[in-house]
Specification:
With about 375 residues, this protein is mainly beta. Helix content is about 10%, strand content about 40%. A hairpin with a 2-residue loop joins strand 3 and strand 4.
Length: about 375
């Protein structure tokens, strides 16, 4: 059944009032420090006296209108003077049965208090400690005042102070906006004119276009950038096949690649006398690594007399007089273990007459091999 507590002709019952007070006090218990004598506890011999005052325990107010004396006994014991609230008992119009002073004892140490959640359950026992002491045959010893205090003036002052701090913080935040007119509204969105600086980073998904400079990194960044000065991981660009080469490229600068002919080798050196009986020079040349008689052929050669200006590429000279003259190979023999290179000086006159002239001097040569 639905009940009304703050409605006309409806009762504002004590459990709801206790809930309100306890919530307001954030669950704190204590004696009012500005009402009567603050429930001060004194002792003489084996008797305690609780003076006038008021206390709030779990949202329920209790008052001592004059004073109450409590006999503690003379046994050797560890004791606590408490106000006990027992909501399992029933009050009458003339008698408060749900709250009383009580001395709880233990022979070995100060006893634990019972603290049932009487606000939530509206039942059970809750004990609030006023003082602790020891009893002996000669009276009370080791007395300790255990009251806590509720200063309502301080409570309201703290509320006022916290409210002021929050208000000042809001005013400072608003003052940092350049013209005070543009605000981001979390629920409705909005447009911000000017610069947004997020020193702590930006979280969440961004959609739409982003222009300008973006720094930092993210492992979950997707999409395409309009421009970039450098890629995150450099890539290797390689050529394979008849021409080989490799270069690393990260987009930050131009690169150039040095290439090599993968299946071509150039043999170079010099060849000189003495000449054989035919006036020729011969030389035995080793194959370069990876080349042999069965996997390569000769695709070019060149000769030059070391002390002349003979043109590379022919090994001969040809002038407008109509003759050919120069040293040329008479054989380049591909043998099992080596290459035999033989050259001879040849002269062809304009009328077709061929002469062989013995070689003299030293010749530089180049022989070009290609794998097949």
């Amino acid at each position: 059944m639905l009940k009304g507590y703050v409605f006309s002709k409806q009762l504002f019952e004590n459990p709801i009032f206790a809930l309100f007070i306890n919530t307001f006090l954030n669950g704190e218990n204590g004696v009012s420090n500005n009402y009567l004598n603050g429930m001060e506890v004194t002792y003489s011999g084996s008797t305690l006296t609780v003076n006038s005052g008021a206390v709030c325990i779990q949202g329920r107010f209790l008052g001592e209108d004059t004073s109450t004396q409590i006999a503690t006994g003379t046994n050797n014991a560890y004791c606590k003077l408490v106000i006990e609230i027992d909501l399992d008992k029933q009050n009458t119009e003339s008698q408060l049965n749900q709250a009383s002073y009580k001395v709880i004892t233990s022979a070995s140490g100060y006893p634990e208090l019972t603290k049932t959640n009487i606000v939530k359950n509206v039942s059970g026992i809750y004990q609030y400690e006023l003082a602790r002491f020891r009893t002996t045959a000669s009276g009370i010893t080791d007395f300790q005042d255990m009251r806590t205090f509720l200063d309502f003036d301080s409570i309201f002052e703290e509320i006022r102070q916290q409210y002021g701090e929050v208000l000042q913080e809001l005013e400072d935040e608003l003052a940092s906006v350049v013209d005070g007119s543009d605000y981001l509204l979390k629920s409705a969105g909005g447009t911000v004119e000017g610069e947004i600086i997020a020193n702590g980073g930006v979280r969440g998904d961004l959609t739409g276009n982003v222009t300008g400079n973006v720094s930092g990194s993210s492992g979950s960044c997707t999409g395409n950038a309009a421009t970039a000065t450098k890629i995150q991981t450099a890539r290797s660009i390689s050529l394979s096949g008849d021409v080989t080469g490799s270069v690393s490229f990260d987009g930050s600068k131009n690169v150039s690649m040095t290439t090599n002919l993968a299946n071509v080798a150039v043999l170079s050196g010099t060849i000189s006398g003495p000449a054989d009986s035919n006036g020729s020079y011969s030389k035995t040349i080793s194959y370069p690594a990876g080349y042999n008689q069965s996997n390569c052929i000769v695709i070019g050669w060149a000769l030059e007399l070391s002390n002349s200006a003979t043109i590379w590429g022919t090994g001969m000279t040809l002038d407008s007089g109509g003759y050919v003259a120069g040293a040329m190979p008479t054989s380049i023999s591909m043998r099992n273990d080596n290459i035999n290179f033989k050259i001879r000086n040849v002269y062809v006159s304009s009328d077709g007459t061929v002469f062989s002239i013995p070689l003299t001097g030293t010749y530089s040569y180049k022989i070009i091999l290609m794998k097949i």
